[in-house]
Every structure is written in structure tokens, then in C-alpha cells.
């Protein structure tokens, strides 16, 4: 496992950029030319609640570089469970890890997932590069489509595997923008399509967090039998508000996160 938090995030970022070409344009659009003010609020990773590669196995990589567990979240309709982690240095990004509760899904989905997971070498899970190692299996296009019909989350995992599902611009740190409405407008003016599930802006100052996101880039995947463009990763935007004690809220809002997951839905 990594011993350096910055190296870990650099690798996650490069891996994300490789399938999310729009991320560079987001930086150019929102960033200031004077200083590097596009700061990452958090990343998210996906997995299955299989003992071999469950949420805790991913979290171990972050705990090893100074993170601690902070909150848990339930997404009944999507059959997901999640936790978020924060570093002892508040300047480091937060981490949101979710897992699909496979036993709550159809037998067909369970069989496909078990077959995929069987291809993962036990030693790979603790390797330095596991969090950005992509897929350890190959599925055909029909299997992807079968998963998609039941769980977009499972289909995404089958195509992309282990990588940051999104990075998040911390609007609080931007020099050119001080609210989420203006960020969203700039993105739309530049031709980006936003995730409108649950509204363009998820959350509110009342819950101390407002979020929006682009729809995932379409990117070509080489399935075992054919190549096909499917949604890859996306960019999120978050603005945090102060709690009564004056400190910025650092958690997540389940109702908002539920809709952010839909950023990887096919258009």
C-alpha cells in the first residue's frame, strides 16, 4: 500500500484523466490563471460487498495514509452502503466509498459479480495500485447490458473496475466563483451537460452542502467481444457551509449523493 497520500492521489488523478477528457476543460474553465485554485473536495470509489473486495478493503489503502472513518450512508433503492473518510490534514481530499449489496440483487447479477471477483488475485487487493487498477476481468457487451438493466452501478463496475468514479471541485476555494449557480451556468455555457436528477443543484445551505455534477464522459471500452462507448467518469462541484460552530461542514448528504450516483447513467 502507498505510504504517501499525495502520490496516491496523483495516481488516482492520472488514471481518472485517461478516461475523463472533459476534466481538463473543467480546470481551464473554472480555474484562475493567478493560482492553482481548483482544489479537490473529495473523490468517490465503487465496489461490491464481497469479502474479497468490500468497502473496508478499499478503505484500508486510505487508513494507511492517515485517513479515518467519519460517516456512513444507506441507499435502499440502489442497494448501496457507503462510508466517508477524512484525513488528519483537512487540506487533503475527503473520500467516499460505496459498495453494492450484492445479496439484495438477482441471482443472475450475483453470479456475474462472483465470476468477475473470482478473477481478482488476492494479492492485488493490497497492492499499491489497486485503487486505480481498473478491471481484473473481461465481460462481453451482453453481460454489461444485462447488468445495466438491473443496476447501473454494477454495469459501471463491470466496464471500469477500480478507479476514482469522480473528482470534485471545491467551490469554496475558487477565485472566479463564489456560488454554485454561477459555476453551473459557466459549465452549461461551455457546452457541458449537467446531471439534472433531483434538480441541477442537490442539497441546500440548510443541509450545509450544495452539489452539482456533469454527466459522465462517454468513452470506448473494449469488452471481450466488441468495443462500445459507455459512460466513464464525471466531475462534481461542491460548496460547503459553516456549521453553528463556524467550522465548514465536512460530511455528505445521503439524499444528494443518491442523485449524484446517476451522473454515470447513459444519456
TrEMBL record:
Q: Which InterPro entries match?
A: HGLS (IPR009770)
Q: Which cofactor is recorded for it? A: Fe(2+)
Say which domain of life the source belongs to: Bacteria
The record's CDD domains line, in alphabetical order, gives: VOC_like
What's its EC? 1.13.11.93
Q: Which UniProt keywords apply?
A: Dioxygenase, Iron, Oxidoreductase
- PANTHER family per the UniProt record, alphabetical: 2-OXOADIPATE DIOXYGENASE_DECARBOXYLASE, CHLOROPLASTIC, DUF1338 DOMAIN-CONTAINING PROTEIN
Q: Which family does it belong to?
A: Belongs to the 2-oxoadipate dioxygenase/decarboxylase family.
Q: What is this protein called?
A: 2-oxoadipate dioxygenase/decarboxylase
Annotated source species: Pseudoalteromonas neustonica
